[in-house]
Design goal:
Layout lengths: L5 E7 L7 H9 L3 E8 L8 H4 L4 E7 L16 H11 L4 E6 L6 H10 L2 H5 L2 E4 L2 H4 L9 H23 L2 H40 L1
Parallel strand pairs: 1-2, 1-3, 3-4, 4-5
């Protein structure tokens, strides 16, 4: 059976308790198979193994650290990590989440993307969340960024379905080819067993006459 649900990895320098609301949202959405989280530190020089455990990645940052310094700015926190996520999983399978913002407007989003252009180049989208968003426990009560994330994961799951099912394409074609060969053999046996007998019977009748 083709896989249809994402295996999500959340990568951050923050403790998982900071984005527990995000984990709960993902699990409650019924769109993901599982959610794993990986703490980035200065000692985690290579995240390749961890990244390969996921099909979809969220790079999480909180404004509570004091600045919005994801990439491309002084003392940015995730230059190498964002690059690695995009290279291994593909840009369409990576999103950046910035949390604990007072302003989550499109103006703020565009300003961040302008100052930190690598986010737009290496991730499919930048999603902004404020404190109010984390109080929205039910999926039906979620805001714009929640719905955008749901839509992105749905698209990811559709790509997963196509990719997984395509692995079986040649197997299915092979089965159909073998079945076709058996059908031809059965038809040949049928013709050999019936039509030659009738022709010989007709020839014998004419000779006797």
């Amino acid at each position: 059976m083709c896989q249809k649900k994402a295996s999500v990895g959340i990568f951050s320098r923050e403790h998982a308790s900071c984005y527990k609301w995000l984990i709960d949202f993902l699990l409650d959405s019924s769109l993901v198979r599982d959610v794993n989280f990986f703490c980035i530190s200065n000692k985690s020089l290579n995240l390749t193994k961890e990244i390969h455990q996921c099909t979809f990645a969220i790079l999480y940052h909180t404004k509570n650290r004091g600045r919005i310094n994801v990439t491309d700015v002084t003392d940015s926190l995730y230059d190498e990590e964002l690059q690695a996520l995009s290279e291994i999983l593909g840009r369409k399978n990576v999103v950046v989440v910035i949390d604990d913002l007072e302003d989550t407007s499109e103006v703020q989003k565009n300003a961040i993307l302008k100052d930190q252009p690598s986010i737009g180049k290496l991730a499919q989208d930048l999603l902004l969340f404020g404190n109010d968003d984390k109080r929205m426990a039910k999926v039906s009560e979620t805001g714009k960024s929640h719905q955008q994330l749901r839509g992105i994961i749905k698209d990811h799951n559709r790509r997963l379905w196509v990719r997984e099912c395509s692995k079986y394409k040649w197997l299915i074609l092979t089965i159909f080819f073998i079945a076709f060969i058996f059908l031809l053999i059965a038809l040949a046996v049928h013709l050999f067993l019936h039509y030659p007998y009738k022709r010989l019977h007709i020839k014998g009748t004419h000779k006797h006459a």
